[in-house]
Amino acid sequence: MGPLRLTDFVRVAMVDDHESVLLGLRAACLERGYEVVAVAATVAELVRQIGGRPVDVIVLDLSLGDGSSVAENVTAARGTGASVLAHSIADRTPLIREAFAAGAAGVIPKSAAMSTVMAAVATVAAGGVLNNLDWASALDADAEFSQVKLTAREREVLHLYAAGLPLKLVALEMSIAVTTAREYLDRVRAKYVEVGRAAPTKVDLLKRAVEDGILALGPTGAV
What we know:
Layout: E1 11-15, H1 19-32, E2 35-40, H2 43-50, E3 57-61, H3 70-78, E4 83-88, H4 93-101, E5 106-109, H5 114-125, H6 133-141, H7 152-162, H8 167-174, H9 178-194, H10 202-211
Parallel strand pairs: 1-2, 1-3, 3-4, 4-5
Helix pairs in contact: 7-8, 7-9, 7-10, 8-9
């Protein structure tokens, strides 16, 4: 996978039940030239405001006070077609794990500098997966986060494929048949399904590889 192309034009929406946080995020987005499509205190209200308009990234607080669950909120936010960037206190490990299980593209701590938050928005908008110590450390410390037990060959297939190689080149690199490479990849996907971390797409496999330390990303999110 080549370097991500970060665009200057990003359509952002955000959910937080603290007005000061919303005001700060909105101001930073506008200063950077991003379009702020909608802001709201709940995901339900945000979806209503968006009303089908295109959104690239939804910055989502994981600790909302309306009784909604993280999984419900991430799923509903992703239903708009946007990628979800969790904006949370980094030590809330169960919430972070739930967000990733529901398909969040990354998490940025509320303690991060606003410039770091905006850079994360740009990375997620470009289809990248964030590589930061906050969520990686949280997952490593979380005994309930299901690790997949892959064989050495399965890890190699996942590493090469998630890094961007087409299956034919993966097979060539490993000196195996394409059908054998596909079988390994199918086993990898099946094992992730078994632990509740399904990875049906190549982007999902990239996320799983990063989460499990099989593939490292650069500071911008590029492989």
